Amino acid sequence: MEETNREAVATAVQRVAGMLQRSDQLDKVEQYRRREARKKASVEARLKAAIQSQLDGVRTGLSQLHNALGDVKDIQNSLADVSKDWRQSINTIENLKDVKDAVVQHSQLASAVENLKNIFSVPEIVADTQVLIEQAELLEAHRKLMDLECSRDDLMYEQYRMDSKNTHDMNLIRNYFGQVQGLSDDLAKQLWMVLQRAMGTVRRDPTMLVSVVRIIEREEKIDRRMLDRKKQTGFIPPGRPKSWKEKMFEVLEGTVTTRIEGSQSVTREADKMWMVRLLEITRKYVLDDLIVVKNLMVQCFPPHYNTLDRFLKLYHNAVSMRVQELAAEDLEANEIVSLLTWVLNTYKSVEMMGHPELLTEYDINLMGPLLPQEVVEALLSKYVQTFTSNITGWLRKALETDKKDWFKETEPEADQDGYYQTTLPAIVFQMFEQNLQVAAQIDETFKEKVLKLCLKQMNSFLIRYREEVIAYKEDHLKDRQLPQCYVQYMIAIINNCHTFKESISSLKRKYLKSMEQTQNDAAIEKTLNDVAKDGCQFLLDEVFLDLEQHLNELLTRKWLTGSHAVDTICVTVEDYFNDFAKIKKPFNTEMTSEAHRRVVVEYIKAVMQKRISFKNADERREGAERMIKEAEQFKFLFRKLTAGEETDRLCDAIAAIAEVFKLTDPSLLYLEVSTLVSKYPDIREEHIVALLAVRGDASRDMRQMIIETLNQNKPSSAGFIQPIFKDITVPTVTMTSMSSSMAATANKLLK
Fold it and tell me: What pLDDT, on a 0 to 100 scale, did the predictor assign at position 747?
């Protein structure tokens, strides 16, 4: 207490010191004192009020505790009195057992009296009810049935309460009402019959369907009441619970399943389009039925049944089972496509489950797939296998048909631009187009897969195509008179390669999202180029077989004295190329360039074969002038064939060689040969030796000096565009030919 007083004094001193820190504050001391006095009085008043409130609460609590103690004592006394009275009344309760039995008996008798009318008229009510069931008066029949069941159940319940072990009396009641269960079964059959025909009934007589639903709802309520009483008493009447609501949904499910399964009216043996017809009938049935359910049947069932959702699930499950059965059959390729197209596209489209009249009631995307993914994959795999086998056979037949056309005596058809062609590309790509259109009905991924498969088969087909073209050429070489239109059909084959390329590009643009090159694309491109190149080569071979005799006359004594070989060569080449004009670009251009190169090479080969050796300057001059003239003839010819394109360089090689022969001063021969080598770096040593041999006046030392000097100053061939001498070989002199030559020389000397 003293410590508290000291703390209070210290606090007061500190507070007063804070108020009187300046001299001018001394004038306000009285004001400060009054303010502090008011505060003190206010605090004391609040303390007194708080203490008084606490004291009042304590006083009230003590009063309530005192009252509670009195109440407890009163209750204790009352319980003692109750206990005393209960002990005294035990004997009285035992004496009232007879009264209790009498009450139970009275209850049974009251129930019997209440049902007395029904008990005596059971046979009559049973007969009436049977007639009502047969007349389809279902509501009235059910009312009478409920009366009978109620009488039976009440009597059995009272008997059960009185003596649950008395089976004799229970069986007596059950046997007396034995026909009631039969009536219940007959009524149930009528209900199930109406439900099985629900789609027709709801159109014709919806009140009948409403009556059936009302009856089932009544039975459901009775089932629930009987089950609740069983929990309390352990008694449940015979035949309960009936569970007619559950049975109703089973019947509706069976009805939907039967309707879906019964839609197949044709078989594969009777109609090749059986699958399409079956799926279309199923689509129509399902759509029509669901629209009927939404517009009519929903009104016949209570809202909590969710009738439309329930029927949607029933139809979905039934259709799913049906299509899985179909998928398990041994389907053909077109049947697989029809089934998958229907399952993956048609089913959820506006033509069926996505119909505008149904979409407002449910979300189509919440429905699961009709076929499991593994079944879809298995069907697609089977289709691919069948398609691969079929397309291989189709391509083989198409090629066989085209091969037969190659041996016809009439020319192939020409397109609108006059280019020869056969029907093979059109047949092949029409086949591809049809299958791709079918595959596109399934989905984009499968369509691309089928296209890649087509391209893969196309590559294998083109390899066989090339083999057949080579065999065609081999057959022709056995007898060049046959086939009569060999050249024209070979032109058509070359043009087909161009058509194949265009058709492949068209298919890829139409059916592929990406135009990226694949391994098959590169292989197809290469094979088509090889076929076209082979065809061009075979045609040129045909040309040069006709030119062989005239090419052999070049650079011979006959040629020097006045041969018309080059005239004939030019006429023959021009004649052939009138036909070759029906080859499409770029093959036509490439073929013309190759013919030009080959003519020049054959001409230079004739020089290198040393068929002639000029004896004097006049012969060299005459031969050189003839070569220059013939080079001009070739230039004129190939300018004409190439529509004025530059063709001089190849023919200039002939003129350059002619300049070597034309030179009259042997001392300048090295310079002329150097000029030739600088223009054509691919010329080799043996070529120069052959040229000097044909010239005829170059000594051994001169030849050696020219070759050694050229070897030391050989120009680089890097960057050389079109080699000419690369493929020209110079024949070597064998010992046999040398001996023959020496013998001939000896004979001349002897003569």
Answer: 44
| Most confident of the following: 140-149, 495-504, 723-732 | 495-504
Distance CA 508, CA 496 (A): 18
pLDDT, one tens digit per residue, over 455-465 is 889 999 999 99
Task: Report pLDDT for 745.
Answer: 36
Tokens matching residue 89:
């009344």
pLDDT in tens, 632-674: 999 999 988 887 666 678 899 999 999 999 988 877 888 888 8
Res 719 pLDDT > 70: no
- Can you give 496-536 as a three-state secondary structure string? HHHHHHHHHHHHHHHHCCCCCCCHHHHHHHHHHHHHHHHHH
Whether the CB-CB separation of 422 and 489 falls below 8 Å is answered with yes
Residues 663/621, Cβ–Cβ less than 8 Å = no
CA distances, 264 to each of 303, 334, 348, 370 (Å): 34, 18, 21, 18
Query: Cis omega before residue 412 (within 30°)?
Result: no
| Contacts of 486 by beta carbon, 8 Å cutoff, 6+ apart | 472, 476, 480, 542
130 by Cβ neighbours in 10 Å (0-12 / 13-18 / 19+) ranks as middle
Whether the CB-CB separation of 251 and 195 falls below 8 Å is answered with: yes
Question: Nearest 5 degrees, angle CA 581-CA 584-CA 588?
Answer: 60
Q: Report whether 639 contacts 647 (CB < 8 A).
A: yes
Helix, strand, coil shares, percent, the chain, to 5: 80, 0, 20
**Position 738 pLDDT exceeds 70:** no
Residue 106 tokens, joined: 């009275």
Residue with tokens 């505060």, as numbered in its chain: 39
- The model's pTM: 0.66
pLDDT at 578 over 80: yes
CA–CA distance, 284 with 287 (Å, rounded to integer):
5
Residue 490: which of 469, 509, 505 has the closest Cα? 469
Q: Which residue has the tokens 């077109």?
A: 334
Contacts of 72 (CB under 8 A, 6+ apart): none
Token look-up 């002939």 returns 654
The residue assigned the tokens 């069926």 is: 352
- The 3-state DSSP class for residue 420 equals strand
Nearest by Cα to 411 from 403, 401, 421, 423: 421
d(C-alpha 43, C-alpha 41), whole Å: 6
Task: Tell me phi and psi for residue 556, to 5 degrees.
Answer: -120, 175
Cα Rg of the chain (Å, integer): 58
* 170 token code pair: 């229970």
The rounded distance, in Å, linking the Cα atoms of 354 and 409 is 60
For 572, other C-beta atoms within 10 Å of its C-beta total 15
Average pLDDT over residues 129-149: 87
Q: How many CA within 13 A on the CB side of residue 265? A: 9
Q: Which one has a higher pLDDT value, 177 or 137?
A: 137
